[in-house]
Every structure is written in C-alpha cells, then in structure tokens.
Specification:
This protein is α/β, with parallel strands linked by helices. Helices cover 37% and strands 21% of the residues. The protein has a 7-stranded mixed β-sheet with strand order 5-15-20-19-16-18-17, sandwiched between helices. It has a 7-stranded parallel β-sheet with strand order 10-11-9-12-13-8-14, with helices on both faces.
C-alpha cells in the first residue's frame, strides 16, 4: 500500500522508532514530518494519525523536529559530534567536506567518529643488502623497490634460513614480496644443482606451490609474481577450474617452477592420481595465502589436504600469509600441524576517518543510498560491503534509484562479468561497487577512497577497510549499523566496545566428519600403511567395517563405495550447485540448499542488478540444479 503526503502528494517514508510504538513519518519531496504513536505499530493507523495531525496543524518541517529527535536519542547533538572531533586533535574546518556532510547531516545517529592515524612505517635494509641473486636485485629496483619494510626484511631472511613462518600484515602492505623474493631466489639458485641434485640435467620440476582461496585472487597475483620470476628464468603457471584442457596438458608435460592453485585442485588431483599429482613429489616450498580464510570445517579440510600433500612431497617448507588476526601463531601451527614463527608488520597507508552510524529515523538502505550519493558527488571511489548476495543486490537497486552507477561483485556471477567489474573499478570507469566478501581478499582494485560495511566482527572489518587508503591517501571507513538489530543497538550505546575484541580464529583438526572423508581420500592418494595416522586407527577400522575402506597387505585401500562417497564430498562444506540460464545462456550459479528458497518457480531473483523470474527448477541425483529464468 502506498501512502502520499497530504501537502504535496509526494511519497511518505515510515520508520519504526526502536523500543517504542512510534513512527517517524516524513515526505521525501517536501520534508513534511511528524512523530506519531501507532499503538501496536499499525502503519495504517499511523498514517491516519499523521493526516489528523496535519489537519490540526501538528505536523512540522523536519528542521523543526530536530530538537525533539535529539532529546529522544534518535539523532546526535552536533555539540557531541564536535567534541568527538576535538578529542582526535582535529579541526572541523580541516575535515574533508564529505566527512563534515555525513557527520552533520542530522539524518542518522552518529555513534562514533574517530581518526585512525596511519601506521608508523618501519623500514628495513636496502635491496642491495639482501643476500639474493644480483639479477633479482636489479629486477626489484627496476620496479621502484629500493628499500624493504622491516617485516619484509625479517620474513625474507627467515625463509632463506629455511624456517616455517606466518606473515601477518594488513591487506596491500607487501606480503607477496615477503615470500616471492626468497623463493624465486632459491629456485633460481637450484640451477647449480645444490637444491635438486636428483633432477636430470635440462629437466624442469615443480618446486613451489602458491595456494590461494579463490581463482580470482591467484589470477590477480599472477602478473606481480611473473614480473619478479621471468627475468631469472623461473616459470610460473596457474592451474585452477578455469584452466583449459590444452593448458593442463602443457603443465603435465612440462611443469613450471611455481604453480599457483587452490586446495580444491590439490584435493582432486591427489585423490585421482592424475599426472599433476606426480609433479607434487618434487615440491619443496608451500605458500598458503590469505590464511585467515581457512576456518571452521573448510580449514579442517585444508589441514588434512596439507597432511596428504606432505605424504607425497616429503620434506617441505611452509609459509603462511594472513591479514590481521589475534592468534596468528596458534592458528597457523594448528592448520599446518607444525610449529611456525610469526612475522608481523604494517606497510605504508594513509589515515582513516572512521564513522559509526545508526540509521534511527530512516532505513538502512536509504542511509546507504544517500551516503554513497554524497561520496560520488565528492569524487570518492567506494566499495559497499554486504554480508549476503541478496543484500549486495538490493544496495545496487537502491543506487540505481538514485542514478548512481554501480556494479555488483559477488560469487555466482560469471567470471568475465566479475573481471570487467574489477577492471572498470580499478581504472575509474565506475566509482562504486556493491560487493560481498569476494572483495575482502587481496584482489587489486586500485585506489579505493571509502569502504562502507554492514555490521561484522572486528577482524573482518579491518580486512574490509584495508581495501582503502592503499596509495597513502586519507580514506573513509563507515560502519553502518542496522536499526532494530540488538547487536547494532548495543554498539550504538557502547561504540568504543567494538574495538576491544579482535576475535581469534580456529580450525577444527579433530572434526570427525572431515576426518572420515579425508582418510578415504588419503587412501586414494596412495594406500595407507598401518603405522600412519595412528591417532585415527579407530576411525580407520570403522571405515573398514562400513565397507568404504579395505585392509589388506598391512595397508588401507579405498573401496569402490568409498570412491563414490568421496565423489559427492565438497571440501568447502557447500552442497551442490544450481546453474542459472536465461534464453539458453548460462548467466550465473547459486549453491544448494539456499537456491531452493531463492529460485523456486515464480520467485523473483536479483542478478547483477537485474530482476529475473524463475520459470523452472530441477535438481538431478548428483546434487546439481538447473534453473530457467
């Protein structure tokens, strides 16, 4: 039902006032406003009360209601906001215009303003002082790298010394150079036969695995690593789900020195004993990037895949990289099943204007739309992070309604579409991206000026805002709380509490469901001797009793039933996949079971900012679905 303004016939906006039966009603066109009590939050009753008040002269323009809204705690007193700015030793006059506009607009409750100073940069040695190949030094200097950060120097030296380490630093601070420089040096040094004495002269073997959580991230990093490696004759290739058959055959026939891949590929090729799995035998260096991604059941699978990989590789050196987490050493040691050292640091970046907002008199999406419009007007490149794909699509719809050009970036969209979004945003052809956590990771999207995010834990918030200010410029970070949400209401009242708890992350190495499937996979990699995985003997025996493993010749073997069971297993814990077709063309995909609630026949589905209606939905016995829209 549509409600129109009695003064100008414009559209009325209704907003529930938390912890009360009142509505704040305002006209989008003329600003006529009023606070009305609707008893049991009956919108129709509220509307008629608003009409009665208008006829009785009891409604107001918005500005006339501001003192009452402040007294009710719905808006922040401007003097309180000035006090917050003053505590940061800043002058209001010197704040960026858009920051002042957001803080003093009196559209939302300003829970907190804080200026986060740029990190103190600690510089290390010069490139010339590193104990690495002279040609590699020249390559680094040709790209403008003459001096390292302190943490980069420490990481490089410890890797050259053969240590297993985890490197912890914010997104975009130079972690890739920490592992790429020493490993490229070591591989180029192996040409003199010291490191790989059993390799036939003139032969090439796979020496390093660089493992990423997503295909897009590995492809984003490829050029950076190739620029360092190629001048030294060190070869780098990618092997993932998008690698063509001909490219796979080339890698089988002549493996690169460094292979960039993911754990899904390693899991599959180990258990199917493909030609790629044979090349794993020569791997000596394993790098696991974006370590903080491998939590929960997915992390438990990664823990086991690394165990299986090392059954094939033998002795390896492992390096992990992570954005800021509170327990890097504990987490990495648990994931890798070995003790690791920790190297922590921060790169060069600008300061942050941090703003925590609570939309108390308008909707969450209305606030997002208004603020993004202002940011674009002032020329700020912005990422709006959402916690679900539906939320990201709705943000796009809201921005379209305000004539703000934006694109959606999320899982389930075609690869070529996501790549175009990344390229257009990086080049400045578009100023706004509405994204899910797909852009949380270290994909290079250029000089982002502002990040707006839905409520999220502090660790992931830090990862998200790490996308901005990477060129050293001052950036803006906005945490948009949700009206009516108890957690958001708590942080509205206690904003400083948000920064007091950087949650630790954990992996589940004793997850029995994961262990059962991974033990079957290990037996498929190569038969498991009775002395291996002694802590899991009871589980192995139960798998034999169930008929998915057999025990003969003092070894465990996977049975045909065990192989069938593993074929249906997804290491990321997701179900099957639903492919979405429009006019016979594949336009995207969605995971089961959530697709059942979003793509049933007749459902309206938001996809890359467009609306589709589902015509048909079927799922085959293998757990794969097909939708026509």
């Amino acid at each position: 039902m549509s409600f129109t303004c009695p003064r100008c016939s414009g559209k009325l906006r209704f907003h529930n006032i938390e912890s009360s039966t009142k509505y704040f009603i305002s006209c989008i066109s003329c600003g006529l406003s009023g606070l009305v009590d609707a008893g049991f939050r009956d919108k129709i009753l509220a509307y008629y009360t608003f009409l009665d008040n208008y006829r009785a002269g009891k409604t107001s323009n918005f500005n006339d209601l501001i003192p009452e809204l402040i007294s009710l705690g719905l808006l922040r007193d401007p003097n309180d906001i000035r006090s917050m700015i003053s505590k940061c030793n800043l002058s209001i006059e010197l704040l960026p215009e858009v920051v002042k506009d957001i803080l003093f607009s009196l559209n939302d409750y300003v829970a907190l303003y804080r200026f986060i100073d740029p990190p103190k940069v600690e510089y290390g040695c010069s490139v010339d002082e590193l104990n690495i190949n002279d040609r590699l030094k020249s390559v680094l200097k040709s790209y403008g790298i003459h001096r390292l950060y302190r943490f980069q120097e420490e990481a490089i030296k410890r890797i050259l010394n053969g240590e297993d380490i985890v490197i912890v630093a914010p997104t975009g601070s130079g972690k890739t150079e920490c592992f790429a420089i020493p490993i490229i040096h070591l591989i180029s040094s192996s040409r003199d036969r010291r490191f790989f004495p059993l390799v036939p002269e003139g032969s090439r073997v796979l020496k390093a695995l660089f493992i990423y959580p997503t295909k897009s991230l590995s492809r984003d990093q490829l050029l950076k690593i190739k620029r360092l490696a190629s001048p030294l004759g060190v070869t780098v290739r990618i092997f993932d789900g998008d690698t063509s058959t001909s490219e796979r055959e080339e890698i089988y026939d002549e493996p690169p020195d460094i292979l960039m891949t993911n754990f899904d590929i390693i899991h599959y090729h180990l258990s199917h004993r493909t030609p790629l799995s044979n090349h794993f035998k020569s791997v000596r260096y394993i790098v696991v990037d974006e370590l903080h991604s491998y939590v929960g059941a997915f992390g438990a699978n990664v823990h086991w895949i690394l165990k299986r990989l090392q059954r094939v590789c033998g002795s390896t050196q492992i390096i992990g990289c992570s954005a800021t987490i509170s327990n890097p050493g504990e987490f990495a040691s648990m994931l890798f099943d070995r003790r690791v050292g920790v190297v922590e640091g921060s790169g060069r970046r600008g300061g942050f204007h941090f703003i925590m907002l609570y939309p108390s008199i308008r909707s969450f999406y209305s606030a997002i739309g208004d603020i993004v419009s202002k940011l674009v007007k002032y020329g700020y490149k912005t990422i709006v992070f959402s916690n679900s794909h539906v939320e990201a699509e709705v943000v796009k719809q809201v921005l379209d309604g305000r004539n703000v050009k934006s694109y959606v970036h999320r899982a389930g969209l075609p690869k070529n579409y996501r790549v175009k979004v990344e390229e257009d945003f990086r080049s400045g052809r578009i100023m706004v991206v509405s994204a899910t956590p797909t852009l949380e990771l270290g994909i290079d999207v250029g000089d982002v000026d502002c990040v707006i995010t839905s409520p999220i834990g502090l660790a992931r918030f830090m990862h998200r805002i790490g996308r901005a200010g990477r060129r050293g410029q001052e950036a803006i970070a906005i945490l948009m709380l949700r009206g009516g949400d108890p957690i958001s209401a708590y942080y509205k009242r206690n904003p400083e509490k948000y920064f007091t708890y950087l949650e630790p992350i954990y992996v589940e190495p004793r997850n029995l469901m994961v262990a059962r499937h991974q033990l079957i996979a290990a037996c498929m990699d190569k038969p498991l001797s009775s002395g291996e995985f002694e802590d899991w003997t009871d589980i192995l025996k139960s798998l034999v009793d169930e008929g998915v493993l057999s025990f003969r010749g003092k070894r465990y073997h996977a049975t045909p039933e065990g192989r069938r069971l593993l074929r249906r297993y997804n290491i990321r814990g997701a179900g099957g996949r639903v492919e979405i077709y429009f006019n016979g063309k594949l336009i995207g995909e969605r995971e089961l079971p959530i697709a059942l609630s979003e793509l049933f026949p007749g459902a309206v589905y938001l996809h890359a900012g467009l609306k589709f209606r589902s015509k048909s939905f079927r799922v085959d016995r293998g757990g794969y679905g097909y939708v026509e829209v």
